[in-house]
Design a protein that fits this description.
about 300 residues, Pseudouridine synthase, Structural Genomics Hypothetical 15.5 Kd Protein In mrcA-pckA Intergenic Region, Chain A, 6 helices, 3 domains, alpha+beta, 15 strands
Length: about 300
Amino acid sequence: MLFTATAADAGRRLDHWLHQHLPDYSRSRIQEWIKAGRVQVNGGPARASQTLRGGESVAVEPAHPPPLDAAPEAIPLVILYEDADVVAIDKPAGMVVHAGAGVHSGTLVNALVHRFGELSGVGGALRPGIVHRLDRFTSGVLLVAKNDQAHRRLAAQFSGREIEKVYLALVHGALAAETGRIDRPIARDPIRRTRMTARLDQGRAAWSEYRVLRRFTRFTFLEVKIGTGRTHQIRVHLSSIGHPVAGDTLYGAPKQEFGRYFLHAHRIRFHQPGTGEEIVVVSPLPPDLAAWLAAVE
């Protein structure tokens, strides 16, 4: 496919501009093509971030993505709890929960299928057992359903806000109060589509409660409890009150040497879907975050 940039396109990023001309493809897909050399500008190599000047000839050779697959992969898993219906995994930071745009292997689902074989199919063939998710660079406890009945009952607990989810977060700045509640709807950011925002008077209802665990000179260590599970919820809410999660550059924090942001799913409380027994599963702070916390002044 051939396109020509006009004078009005000057100043625009190449990947944004191509996404406008190829709306049927995601921007991440287009960025993959650019990285793979499938996009040329004036006959030469291109960069996703390069700025158009107007008048460029842009050639695009589309490629179909590899099929998304929940194929078994021998990836180690840390199991925090397991019974006949549920398994609780200690997800490491950097692991994607299931395949999606730009990620086709190495996911938690690939590891789960290898370890357990058949899991709940309620979420579809690409998401066996997955009842809820954690962001890629959020570590900690995540529940997986072994069968369809367990999946439905756990999902009902999540939707009924019966499951307690507690996180640990290090944030920038000093919060004025020892405890607080953020009750703001969350919506997709209309300008930066990779972000969510709590600064609009619209979106899905969401609340987060925090409690100060320790104060430092430039940071505050928090326990955060959420009653809803919106995309990026804790990160968005804390950023919206001027205290972004440490290392979370997407939401306004400066880059950190540790290579991730400081957010950990520490504890989850639920009722065993078969017996109704209350179960509490705890994931200790991982070594990288423990080392980060020890280095904070």
